[in-house]
User: Fold these one by one.
Assistant:
Number 1:
Amino acid sequence: MKMLLFNQLETYLYLAIVLFAIGLYGVLARRSLIALLISVELILNAASLNFMAFNRFLAPHPAVGQIITLFIMAVAAAEAAIALSIIVALYRKLKTINIEQATELRG
Amino acid sequence: MTAISALFTPQGIATLAFFMVVGMTVLGALIAVAARNIFHNVLGLALSLMGVAGLFLYLNSPFVAMMEILIYVGAICIAICFAIMLSEPLYLPKPPRNLVKMLGAGAGAGLTLVFLGLLIKKTKWTPAVERSTDWSITTLGHYLLTNYALIFELISLLLLVAMLGSIVIARGGRGSS
């Protein structure tokens, strides 16, 4: 029987690295803080996809990877809340959220 | 003719849907980083996360897929929309793109992609010798309340601290409000 494409570990791993590379490009190239946060969310999703793929195809207990993914989601939610409040506070103080203009600590 | 009839088997339909989900994920991710308008970025992120939820469905985890849509698309994307509305107005002129920086970022991300791709290609993945086939949500709940109870409580504490911290930061800090 031919192996189906969506029943192979490698398919999901390649997808995860594509997501990771797109997110990395966003982190490196964008200058708006919100766009940076969006790119970081993409990278976190690539990590969860990796966990879920290994969980589905290799791990001895298929519940553990799902639990780790749930924890990643919770941490990502906390991180997004903190980052967004920092963005709002920064905009109130500097009237911009461009990271190249937020250089108060440069001295 | 055979190709078309192969499409209408269960496997063919599943493969077609898989390609649609993959397309959603990659297209959404590209919109999320490449679009100029920050609001389009958020919509692209939502599309990409829906695609990832579909991939989780293919990985036998409907509960995590639901949580993905609920937490990411339902909560985080909406919170980002609020932050966009509370910060820089969209009609302001944006600074021009820096071509050198974009090329450098593309080269860095591309090199990482190639390196990780070669790594995956070279590695021989071996599954665990003994694998349980228990995917149910009941087992998930049992694990969360027995083996991982401490982490579960810690996560709730983390969320509480993050909530209080974000309120304190967004209020304007000490004395200035």
Number 2:
Amino acid sequence: MDYGQLPNRVIICIDMKSFFASVSCVIRRLDPLKTKLAVVGDVKRSGSVVLAATPLLKKEGIKTGSRLFDIPKRKDIHVVNPSMERYIKASNYISSLVLQYVAPEDFHAYSIDELFIDATASLHLFARTPEELAHRILHEIYRKTRLTATAGIGPNLLLAKVSLDHEAKHSPTGVAYWRYEDIPFKLWSIHPMKGFWGISSATERRLNRLGIYTIKELALSSKEMLQKEFGVLGEEIHQHANGIDFSRISDVYIPSSRSFGKSQILFRDYTSRKEVELLLLELLDDVCFRLRMHQVVAQTIHLSIGYSKQTGGGFSRQKKMGRVSNLSQDIFPYCLTILHTHDSGMPIRSIGISLSNTSIQEEEQMGLFEDIDQRDRAYALAKTIDEIRLRYGKNSVLRASSYLDHSTARYRNGLIGGHKK
Amino acid sequence: MKKWRPFASMPEQYIGLQEVINKQLEVAQPLLTEEQMEQINFTLIEALYTNKQVYLTYYKKGFIQFVDSLGNYLPVIDLA
């Protein structure tokens, strides 16, 4: 393989160790590395899911996805509610520290606790080697927040990410640097394949059926065969197995149209369809609010319903609407049509709505026989309500139906990312 | 960067991040010495009486702002 033609940049991928759990330690003046702490959805519900656990607690077998009742009740184990606002604040503060080393164009926030930087242009200002820069950044983060981070370095984003996942996270120094020449030794020894970035267990099974059991076999297999099985994705995983990735952080990907959605898993099974309709309306209100904030209108509605565990299954259908809109009252009838066409009547446990095919609000076309004044009034009303909610909080103006017992709007408005603020 | 698109489950994070980036562009409020202020004052008075054009910049909320001499006008409150 001739790697001379491939991008050879200094990409660093930084990951915060047990981020939620560590921040929860720090705000309680506990040392994240010496404390056993778990963040759970709600400490009052024994079936609550563990969102994060500190490394010491993970050693006792408690990990993300465990349940509250799995955690032994011991004095040395702290169990706390999430503090989503603090996590976001901490994440943004860490970003501000890293942004001292690269321009915003060379910075990419991949998730709340993971980020990439392209240090090719600014490395010489701060350090002699990429490792030195990585250590310097990790040290600064630790000094200012008491949070531990790890860093993977590579000539492209993929190698930075996999060196982080497969070496840096387990290494005592917290830093790993994989170059193109390391691929046969390091990248190809990753096992099982599903641990590799971008390969799910489903993809792994499909690869097994093609007779591919290792990353090395994947790298050396024919591109055409993979393309036949996986389409465009086939070429991509073939490149990844060879450690190749042409992405550049400064090439911002702008999707031609964004979609906006929200989903929730309900606290109990809902059998009454009247109740489900109300929950859907509340969900739709929220998504429409976001559409209006971005001044866009949507053409397509997508509804997903999941039935309770006993029944299993569910459906996910979309419908194109007669006119584009961002008003709940326009979209809700379509939502109901989808629900009642495909619903099997089983108890419902999860609901989700997404609005897609969006365009800028100003470009909206009026119908020939529509009452323009009435539309303007509807928009003005929505705008006024939005402004009140912006100024006085989401619970300041609500539908009267949100005061019914089975409503979830008032509770969910107090959450960020579905968890306690 | 399509395949590295974040799954932005919490829009709040990205709003805060944009604020951090915008904040970086801000500059500290310039401090003028007595003399500099006097100098500016003389220039303005001269321009006012000789009807000459001046080019104005001012500081507001972290940024140096420019006065568009065609469209905008800058309200001056205290001439004394």
